[in-house]
Amino acid sequence: MSRPVFQFIIACLFLASTKPTASTPDDEEADTGPTEYRYEIASSPDAFLVYEDSYYFEIVSPESLSYTYKLRRAKDFGGDFDRAYSKVRMVLGEPVEGCRPLTNSVHNAVAFLLRGGCSFVTKSNNAEDAGAIAVIIADNDEENDEHMIDMVDDATGRAVRIPSLFLMGKDGVMIRRHLLMYGLEEAIVNIPVNLTGVPIGKARQPPWTLW
């Protein structure tokens, strides 16, 4: 069986088996309304998927993390990107969960935080107050390499103007682990990256996750 055909079969099985996972009460009150997920399989010499509710970013440096990663935008809060950012800093926030005001500089950078301890809105507000252009919140389940969750508003009435994006836990732990191993607190990234029309086999996916 050729590689493109195998990838197409895996992709179809993934779409048939994956179910959206709601955020837990520790983060926000889960949305009880229906959620629509629309997927389009486009035709090309290779099989590829277009996820309408997904964003992508790529790490440029360090080289050991130089892959393209999938994100999910917050369901009902946060802003959108007004442009694509090239070679911008993505900084590990301190404190790591972002439940208090950030103590390190994320000004004009993407803040990288962990899920847990407070609502997604609180984390996003703290990143925004610190001058971040966007916030990526990685799942605290380090083994999660396939499930995206819906980050929902916490009903406190607080506005979030920057993009707030969810990252799977496996990607999150690998990014943090590699940066800390090299004594770094930031990576250089391009965000968002348009993958529409890019074959799955040609997208530079992390070797530890499948999307």
TrEMBL record:
Lineage top rank: taxon: Eukaryota
Organism, as annotated: Batillaria attramentaria
Residue span, PA domain: 95-173
Record has Glycoprotein as a keyword: yes
Coiled coil regions, renumbered to chain: none
Pfam families: PA
Signal sequence bounds: 1-23
Keyword terms: Glycoprotein, Signal
Protein name: PA domain-containing protein
